Amino acid sequence: MQTRSGVSAKGRYLTEAFPLIPEANALGSADRGCLEMLGGIRLSLEEKSGLIREVEGTPLRVRPTSESDIDYVLEAERNEENRPYVGQWTQEAHVAAIGNGDMAHLILEAPGGRRVGYAILVGIAAADGKLQLQRIVVTEKGEGYGRQALQLLKRMAFSEFGAHRFWLRVRARNQRARRLYLSEGFVEEGTSRDSILVDGRYESIITLSILRQEYRP
């Protein structure tokens, strides 16, 4: 299994080149080419399960996404409440992410095993301590699962993966998510103006982060 200090230069290039499309639009042919190359650094579900342990102390828990969850994941991001704020990936993109040694593709479960969302972390094998929350999608609104999931993922970032910097990007018009991140200790670092084109219009992206010394369990 690749480790934080042992990821290859090739693996680091591939896993950085693909996910750093900020909440990308549907993948084009070039991105699919990246996905084909990523197939060379897949991890088994057993290996990924050993790396990503369940985090206790919250009503939610996380587990590695399996390929049997893909239909749920696609439905979640295509839901009319989520679609305006979430990049639309193909089935192939999610399958590649599940097997990518530098990414943690996670299902969020409520008590009883009910799926209430998913999240993707990027940089779990990186040596520089920078971990990205590439996306978090919640399917049951108004129950507090978004905040619980973010608290759980922060704990994983700093306690499980030893991150120094936990960061994310959010679309500027997603004020609800932006307020949540700020209330959970994230700091706005800057805005990339009109940086993505979605459904024929440009949108700005805000970068936020929280550092290890700023994290309060």
Name the descriptors.
single chain, 217 residues, alpha+beta, Aminopeptidase, seven-stranded mixed sheet, 7 strands, globular
Description:
- This protein starts with 8 loop residues before the first helix and ends in a 6-residue tail after the last strand.
- Helix 2 (29-38) packs parallel to helix 5.
- It has helices at 9-17, 29-38, 45-51, 70-78, 91-99, 145-160, 175-183, and strands at 61-64, 103-110, 114-122, 130-138, 165-171, 187-198, 201-211.
- Strands 1-2-3-4-5-7-6 form a 7-stranded mixed sheet, with helices on both faces.
- Helices cover 32% and strands 28% of the residues.
- With 217 residues, the chain is α+β, with helices and mostly antiparallel strands.
- The protein is built from 7 helices and 7 strands; from the N terminus they run αααβααβββαβαββ.
- It has one domain (9-214): Gcn5-related N-acetyltransferase (GNAT) (Aminopeptidase, 3-Layer(aba) Sandwich), CATH 3.40.630.30.
- The protein is globular.
- 31% of the residues are buried.
- The model is unreliable at 1-46 (pLDDT under 50).
Quick structural gist:
The chain has 217 residues and is an alpha+beta fold. Helices cover 32% and strands 28% of the residues. The chain is globular, with a radius of gyration of 16 Å.
